Amino acid sequence: MMDTTHPTNEEMLKRIRSTPIGQLDVADTDIFRNEAAAFTAFDRLRREDPVHYCATNKLYGPYWSITKFKDIVEVETKPQIFSSEAKGITIEDNLLGLNVPMFIAMDPPKHDEQRMAVSPSVAPDNLAKMEAAIYERTRKVLDGLPIGETFNWVDRVSIELTTQMLAILFDFPWEDRRKLTRWSEVASASEESGSSVVASQEQRMAELGECLAYFTRLWNERVNAPPKFDLISMLAHSPATRNMPPMEYLGNLLLLIVGGNDTTRNSMSGGLLALNRNPEEYRKLCARPELVSTLIPEIIRWQTPLTHMRRTALEDATVGGKQIHKGDKVVMWYLSGNRDPEAIEQPDSFIIDRARPRQHLSFGFGIHRCLGNRLAEMQLRILWEEILKRWNKPMQIEVVGEPVPTDVSILFRGLKELPVRINA
Ligand code: HEM
User: Fold this and answer.
1) Closest by alpha carbon to 378, among 117, 180, 122?
2) Domain for residue 354, yes or no?
């Protein structure tokens, strides 16, 4: 049966093109339900009013949209003016209603101290130690895939591999690793976006309580053992984090679980879809597998798994010629900055051999730039290297049905189903 509660794609596009620019409100799930609508809306904002004030959003209240690459960089590099701590880092106040402290939503100096405490877990020498385990797990997952049969890439590959990557990072009990997937989904299931992952806020908090209890057990085991290079051991032993109150421990765990999970997973699914929709690029990759190194950042740009981050102005400031006032909500739309033709050539094309593929905002910028960016890139690189060793013909992993997006969200961009067949 046709869903009549939402405008059709055509209606939505028409509405976006005809709305007076001052009244355009991009923080609207109806816009995000339809990719073309979202990109059209951001295109208009970048051209007509790149630092744009919306006074009328019913869910989130008034907010500024920063839509150009250079303006986003400017906001990101002034954390003393644009705070992550005041009201959180998403357009919805206080982090999707979670309201637990985590260092992504802190300002210096506390942010810097906590970030430094966990940084060694993703430093190059530790990543090199994790590499062999990630190769081994990735090979195992790929070798177990059916040939000539339709299956859901998201579940069999993207979720499984991302969950395994996190389990390695936490040194998490292997047989329980899918708990990490569930906790990530529960933590990011915002009530306001109408998510179906949990039935109520009570259920959500109860499940996150289980998460805290589980990790507290791991903490207690590790705090009394010699320090190791997994994340729990690092948090338990570092002077900056070892006296954290339980809710702050939970917050930082959720940050690492959610930060690493949906984002990397959706890049694994989105990348395969992008290659299928751009067969010329898929052919290029098969002819020159060494292009994996530029393919990966392009996938991450193209997918932009987190559409935005938010700041709150601590004082009056000017951005792009507009006067922002103390207390204002400032939303940096990475999805738009990543399609800004002033910063990226042919931004609306998926091109796997770009000269400057890391010129994107999917990991943010400045002091909060994604801590796990090298880990995510490494996992994606290993995945594509191993895919091409097994299946090196263009479109050999073929998308054979309609991709199903995750619950509509104005923060996360991803897929829950991607039906594929590996052709022999
Ligand atoms: C921060 C994106 C993977 C851990 C961030 C931010 C973004 C982001 C946009 C905020 C940046 C800002 O405010 O300037 C992504 C994407 C990923 C990914 C697109 C995958 C493709 C990971 C992984 C981990 C991770 C694998 C770790 C396990 C973090 C942490 C922060 C962060 C801890 C907070 C950094 C801080 O506040 O200093 N990420 N992330 N992320 N990410 Fe990631």
Assistant:
1) 122
2) no
Q: What is the pLDDT along the chain (424 residues), one digit of tens a residue?
A: 444 578 888 899 999 999 999 999 999 989 998 889 999 999 999 999 999 999 989 899 999 999 999 999 999 999 999 999 999 999 988 766 667 788 999 999 999 998 988 888 888 988 998 899 999 999 999 999 999 999 999 999 999 999 999 999 999 999 999 999 999 888 887 665 556 788 888 898 899 999 999 999 999 999 999 988 888 998 898 888 888 888 888 888 888 888 888 899 999 999 999 999 999 999 999 999 999 999 999 999 999 999 999 999 999 999 999 999 999 999 999 999 999 999 999 999 999 999 999 999 999 999 999 999 999 999 999 999 999 999 999 999 999 999 999 888 899 999 999 999 999 8
Are 100 and 249 part of one and the same domain? yes
Output b/e per residue, 138-154; b: 16+ Cβ within 10 A.
Answer: beebbeebeeeeebbbb
Q: What spacing in Å lies between the alpha carbon of 370 and ligand 1's midpoint?
A: 3
Pocket test for ligand 1, best of 256, 370, 377, 415 (most atoms within 8 A of CB): 370
Ligand 1 atom 28: the closest Cα is on which residue? 260
| Rounded alpha-carbon distances, angstroms, from residue 411 to 20, 86, 191, 325, 335 | 25, 19, 13, 24, 10
In CATH, what number is assigned to the domain containing residue 416? 1.10.630.10
* Domain around 240: 71-79+91-305+365-422
Q: How far does the centroid of ligand 1 lie from the alpha carbon of residue 111, in Å?
A: 14
Is beta strand 317-319 parallel, antiparallel or unpaired with respect to 322-324? Answer: antiparallel
Q: Within this chain, do residues 127 and 18 fall inside the same structural domain, yes or no? A: no
In a domain, 45, yes or no: yes
* d(CA 254, ligand 1 centre) in Å: 12
Shared domain check, 75 and 43:
no
User: Could you report the predicted ipTM of this complex, rounded to two decimals?
Assistant: 0.99
Q: Which two tokens stand for residue 145?
A: 């895939």
Q: Based on the fold, state whether residues 103 and 28 are members of the same structural domain.
A: no
CA of 6 to the centre of ligand 1 (A): 32
DSSP 3-state assignment of 107? coil
Q: Give which of 309, 271, 251 is closest to 79, Cα–Cα.
A: 309
